[in-house]
Design brief:
The complex is a heterodimer of chains A (81) and B (300). With 81 residues, chain A is mostly helical. Chain A is built from 4 helices and no strands. Chain B has helices at 10-29, 38-45, 49-61, 85-95, 114-136, 144-167, 171-178, 185-204, 218-235, 246-259, 262-269, 276-299, and strands at residues 36-37, 65-69, 77-81. Chain B is mainly α and 300 residues long. Chain B starts with 9 loop residues before the first helix and ends with a helix. Helix content of chain B is 64%, strand content 4%. The chains are: A mainly alpha (81), B mainly alpha (300).
Amino acid sequence: MELNFNEIKSLTDEALMISTVKMLVFKELKDELMIDEKELKDKINSKPNDFYKPEELDILVQDNFNDFIKKLVDLISEEIK
Amino acid sequence: MRYHIKKIKEFGIKYAGDVETSVLKFLYNNRNGLIYPVKTIARSVQINPDSVRGALNRLHERRYVKKIWSRKDGRITLWRLRRNAKVYQIVEQRIGIHKSSSVIHKNDYSNKNPFIQDYRTNIFDRTRNEVRSSTFKGSKFFEPSKTHIKKDTSEHYIDKISKTTIKLSPLKTALQSAFPHIALPLEAGYQILSNLDTIRDSYNLTTDTGSYSLCNALNETVKTATRLAYNHVVNYVSQTIGNAVIPNIVETSSKYLEQKDIFKDITESLNLDESYSDDFKNFYDASLSNCLKNRINMVR
């Protein structure tokens, strides 16, 4: 297997970005639903990474980003209910 | 017969100028590479969107700002200040930031009346544009020496200012000074994500000073965490690298980030309770192992 330094760096970056998004979703859901934290965490972690990846424009424009987070929150809360 | 006496509508003129100034102020304070829709600008300067749009268009005519059409929705326009030392200088004068009198201009009376100053900067602006256009056309009267020296020094000066302000503040404050409106966690998260590269670039420039512990800088820590993880990969290269190694790499990386308080810093920037930093670590572990798994499966 070949993994070079830059690849791992971009993976670390990506993980940092995705975990920040997950964190925001977690915060919103925790406030919205009265549910066990561990359960919620597992639910959030069970989704693939692509699910949390914002598009280029989502990061460029704040309104889009807010919509993006809200969309994720809605999707997960619907699944839990 | 009475003739209608034409009056100059002073209020209107003043008002338009005020809108332009506050819009410029907003764009100047948020000039770090982001573009903003009219709605956002209007909301943060608290003026109705139509006047803001008008002001932006007037500023666009005078080449202060750049207009970008949104790719997703063709009706939305996105705006930012033009990245040009001269534009910055003129805007600074206009919104009343006086950095150093020797660099900007030496007239004392300009401070007394803001409208005179405004008027003067407009003339200043226009003549500059004319000078530039005539030189680009290749006129015979082109004198490179003066204009070039001026441009170089002013650009250098502005660069210096922005570098030092960022240099002297830790990550958190750099974020907050760049974005004064951090109130909701959501906004802060957005700002962190959209500015990771800018922050990293700024910290790249500041490796020589020992006074501030720049080890906390995101760039350095991420780099080192990556290096540690990479060493782990290299150690395992002789064996078949599979999913078994991933937890090891993840642990090294996240342990390092935890030691350097990165999780804590980011949770704090998100205005969240400190207890959330453990959750953040948990999410990071999961995301990184997912990333690595995807990558390894792709190679196979």
